[in-house]
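User: Fold this; C-alpha coordinates only.

Assistant: Input:
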Amino acid sequence: MNRAEIDTDDLLKIVLLLVVVWLLLEIVGAVLEVAFWLLDALPTLIGIALVVVIALHLTDRI
Protein backbone atom coordinates (compact mmCIF):
# COMPACT_ATOMS: atom_id res chain seq x y z
CA MET A 1 0.00 0.00 0.00
CA ASN A 2 1.43 3.32 -1.06
CA ARG A 3 1.00 6.33 1.23
CA ALA A 4 -0.46 8.30 -1.65
CA GLU A 5 -3.22 5.71 -2.05
CA ILE A 6 -4.93 6.62 1.27
CA ASP A 7 -8.35 8.08 0.60
CA THR A 8 -9.21 11.53 1.94
CA ASP A 9 -12.34 10.16 3.63
CA ASP A 10 -10.22 7.64 5.53
CA LEU A 11 -7.89 10.39 6.73
CA LEU A 12 -10.87 12.47 7.87
CA LYS A 13 -12.27 9.48 9.75
CA ILE A 14 -8.93 9.00 11.53
CA VAL A 15 -8.76 12.69 12.47
CA LEU A 16 -12.37 12.62 13.66
CA LEU A 17 -11.65 9.54 15.78
CA LEU A 18 -8.61 11.21 17.33
CA VAL A 19 -10.59 14.37 18.13
CA VAL A 20 -13.39 12.30 19.74
CA VAL A 21 -10.84 10.42 21.86
CA TRP A 22 -9.22 13.72 22.88
CA LEU A 23 -12.61 15.19 23.89
CA LEU A 24 -13.50 12.07 25.87
CA LEU A 25 -10.20 12.28 27.74
CA GLU A 26 -10.87 15.94 28.54
CA ILE A 27 -14.35 15.09 29.88
CA VAL A 28 -13.01 12.21 31.99
CA GLY A 29 -10.29 14.49 33.34
CA ALA A 30 -12.84 17.13 34.32
CA VAL A 31 -15.06 14.55 36.04
CA LEU A 32 -12.10 13.14 37.96
CA GLU A 33 -11.03 16.63 38.97
CA VAL A 34 -14.49 17.33 40.43
CA ALA A 35 -14.48 13.95 42.19
CA PHE A 36 -11.08 14.59 43.76
CA TRP A 37 -12.21 18.08 44.82
CA LEU A 38 -15.24 16.56 46.55
CA LEU A 39 -13.05 13.98 48.28
CA ASP A 40 -10.72 16.74 49.45
CA ALA A 41 -13.69 18.71 50.80
CA LEU A 42 -15.27 15.69 52.49
CA PRO A 43 -13.79 16.25 55.98
CA THR A 44 -14.96 19.88 55.92
CA LEU A 45 -18.45 18.84 54.83
CA ILE A 46 -18.59 16.22 57.60
CA GLY A 47 -17.54 18.87 60.14
CA ILE A 48 -20.25 21.24 58.94
CA ALA A 49 -22.83 18.47 59.15
CA LEU A 50 -21.78 17.64 62.71
CA VAL A 51 -22.03 21.28 63.77
CA VAL A 52 -25.52 21.52 62.27
CA VAL A 53 -26.68 18.30 63.96
CA ILE A 54 -25.30 19.38 67.34
CA ALA A 55 -26.84 22.85 67.01
CA LEU A 56 -30.21 21.33 66.09
CA HIS A 57 -29.98 18.95 69.04
CA LEU A 58 -29.15 21.76 71.48
CA THR A 59 -32.08 23.84 70.27
CA ASP A 60 -34.42 20.82 70.54
CA ARG A 61 -35.16 20.83 66.82
CA ILE A 62 -34.27 17.15 66.53
